Amino acid sequence: MRLFGSERISGVMDRLGAEEGEVITHPFITRAIEKSQKKVELYNFGIRKRLLEYDDVMNKQREVIYGRRNSILDTDDLDGMVHGLIDDVIDQVTEGFMPPESLPDEWDIGGAASELETIFLFKFDMSVLSEQETKEERAVIDHFRAEARKAFELRKSMIPADIMLQLEKMIMLQSIDEKWMDHLRELDNLREGIHFRSYAQKDPLVEYKQEAFQMFSEMVDDIDKTVLWGLFHARIDSPDKAERRRPRREVAMHRTVDAYAATQPAREAKPGPVAPGADIGPAASSAGTRPLQREEPKVGRNDPCPCGSGKKYKKCCGQGS
Prior knowledge:
Elements lengths: L6 H10 L10 H48 L4 H19 L11 H12 L16 H21 L3 H33 L10 H30 L5 H7 L11 H6 L19 H6 L34
C-alpha cells in the first residue's frame, strides 16, 4: 500500500484513526488493496519477463554451440566439416585484405596468401592465376580454397585415418569449450553494465542483443581459425619416436652381490661394543681409539690469565667460552 497505493488511501486511514492490526471491511479500502496487489504482480511479472529475455539471448547461442558439439561427437567423418571451416576462414582472411567495396588495385593478395600459408603450412601457388583473374574476387577466393584443400589432403596422407579422426575431434571440442567459456564470462560482464545505456535513451535489452550477437560472431570465427591452426600445426609422433623422446632414468644394477661389493671402496673396521666378560688384550686395546689427554693444567675461570695480562681468565682470553 505504501508503494503502490494512492495518497488518498493514507489520508483516509489517518482520518478514520485505524490502528495497526485492525480489520478493515470498507469496500473502498478493499478495492484499493486489490488494485495495489495487481500493480505489484504486474511489476514482478515485468522483472521476470525482462530477465527471461536476457537469458533467452544466451540460450539461443547455447543451442548453436551444443548443436555443433553434438554433430562432432555423433559423426565419424569430419572432412566435410573441415572443408566448411576452410571456406569460412578463407572468407575471413580475404575480407581483411580484399575489402568488398575496394578496387582491385587496392587489394593485397600477397598478404592474404602469406597469412593463409602460416595457417595451413602450405605454399600457395599464385602464379597459375592470370592477370585478369587476380582482379576477380571470386577467382582469387576459389583458388585459395583449392590450395587449402590440397594442403588438407596432404596433411591427411601423413597421418593414419583413425588418428586423424581422433585429432580432429579433440581439437574441435577443445577449441569450442575454451572459447565458449571465455564468451560466457564476457557476456556476464556485458550484462552487469548494460543498464547504463538507458541514460543515453537506449533500450538496454536491444543493446545487449546487438552486442551479444557481435561477440558471438567473433567467437565463432575465432573457433574456426583455432581449429584449423591446431589441425595443421599439431605434431604427431610414431610410437617409436615417442618412446625415444621419453626421458629415461638410468639405474645401476648388479647381477650378483660379489659384483656389487667389488664396486664399493674398502672401509676401515670400527671397534664395536665389547661383550661382558670378553678378554681385552693389548692388541684389542691398541685397535681402539685412545682418549685425549690434556698436556697443560686446566685454567679456572677466576685464575689469572696465562697470557700475562693480569686479568682473570674469564675477563680475558676465556671471555665467551
